[in-house]
């Protein structure tokens, strides 16, 4: 997810019923190529204006920039060796109620 209206996804990662549910959400769905998904392109962090993501998926970065978002690409080759991506290094904090 990048913004409340935009969802990047790799549909083949989901069962058919789950794909149908996701499509029914009414979001702008942007399909990411399998090669980018395998490079952890969807393992990102966003505040709806800035996206922090791997530097290993330039097509996805270009797609996000074309939508007016600021994209910060980080080297993640070593992190990927352990099976992780940018999102795995982030802690999301929400304001107290």
Automatic annotation (TrEMBL):
The lineage of its organism: Bacteria, Bacillati, Actinomycetota, Actinomycetes, Pseudonocardiales. GO terms for molecular function: transferase activity. It comes from the Bacteria. Keywords: Transferase. This is Amidinotransferase. It comes from Pseudonocardia oroxyli.
């Amino acid at each position: 997810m990048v913004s409340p209206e935009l969802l990047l996804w790799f549909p083949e990662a989901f069962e058919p019923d789950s794909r149908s549910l996701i499509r029914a959400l009414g979001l702008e769905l942007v399909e990411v190529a399998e090669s980018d998904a395998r490079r952890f392109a969807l393992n990102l962090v966003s505040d709806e204006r800035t996206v922090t993501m791997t530097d290993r998926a330039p097509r996805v970065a270009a797609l996000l920039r074309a939508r007016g978002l600021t994209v910060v690409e980080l080297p993640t080759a070593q992190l990927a060796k352990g099976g992780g991506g940018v999102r795995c290094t982030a802690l999301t904090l929400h304001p107290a109620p």
